[in-house]
């Protein structure tokens, strides 16, 4: 009896120590209606995942999609609990989840149409691509080429700056996907006949436009920071290196938080930055492992192929797991900064 109690206590202790970012990942994989093991607990997410595996996405991009789908799964399961409890009567959360899902489909080219969304800028549309134009946006390319030739940056600083430019390019792309989703929703909205349904969709559209405005503000603030950084260079007291962490830190400083709250958040962001860097390292290793596997497959040694395939599968699983934990932590930090900033503004 004592032994049984000890085992129960130990198991409980290990479960608690695993941490909130490991719990979901370490759960056993769910089973479908036919008893077969499936990747996700929601049917439409499994359909997307199976389609993605047939699309021959790069290993890193496939791992990124898996992490995005895990976040979507978590959010949808939480929403289902909310619905049972009678929350989300306005349907706002449900509309946001639908929008997030559509953004994932568009982001990975799975929305049934070619991705012809241009990267928006204030420059003329007939911009010619030149050597050195690596960000598909005239303003970004001009700023990057000027910074690169200024002599203000060391090789390591240029690498960090390039990552920030790439992050900004990705944010522009995300904005354009969201804008495209809103435009399509508005077309549907025009065809609504029922007045009650129309009022509900009007509310949803208002929420989407609010989100678009906030993303545009963030883009403008991000570009202004890049412009300042390109002209002045990195300062000695630069707090962080990772673009996503820098973006969170800048948002926190604008959120009217107290010094103690900022200090506490800064420490949490340092831990998060380590997680982001570790994830980036695993992505690089996954790409290298894939290249090695392709090389070995070309040679045709079955035993060698098997060993490398096993290593690659393990690394892919680890990269997906770390990607989910990192994105979950990013989501939590973003919500925390928004929530605390809102509380201060109300005071």
TrEMBL record:
What GO molecular function terms would the record report?
heparin binding; lipase binding; low-density lipoprotein particle receptor binding; receptor antagonist activity; very-low-density lipoprotein particle receptor binding
On whether NADP is a keyword of this UniProt record, the answer is no
Could you confirm whether the keyword Glycoprotein appears in this record?
no
Q: Which UniProt keywords apply?
A: Coiled coil, Receptor, Signal
The protein's name in its UniProt record: Alpha-2-macroglobulin receptor-associated protein
Instruction: Cite the Alpha-2-macroglobulin RAP C-terminal domain residue spans from the record.
Output: 134-347
Q: Which residues form the Alpha-2-macroglobulin receptor-associated protein domain?
A: 5-115
Q: Which domain of life is it from?
A: Eukaryota
Q: Which residues form a coiled coil?
A: 209-275
The record's listing under SUPFAM superfamilies reads: RAP domain-like
Q: Which organism is it from?
A: Lates calcarifer (Barramundi)
Q: Output the Gene Ontology cellular-component terms.
A: cis-Golgi network; endoplasmic reticulum-Golgi intermediate compartment; endosome; plasma membrane; rough endoplasmic reticulum lumen
Gene behind this chain? LRPAP1
Q: Which GO terms describe its biological process?
A: negative regulation of receptor internalization; negative regulation of very-low-density lipoprotein particle clearance
**InterPro entries, alphabetized:** A2-macroglobuin_RAP (IPR038003), Alpha_2_MRAP_C (IPR010483), MG_RAP_rcpt_1 (IPR009066), RAP_D2 (IPR038001), RAP_D3 (IPR037999), RAP_sf (IPR036744)
Signal peptide segment: 1-18
A Pfam family the protein falls into: Alpha-2-MRAP_C
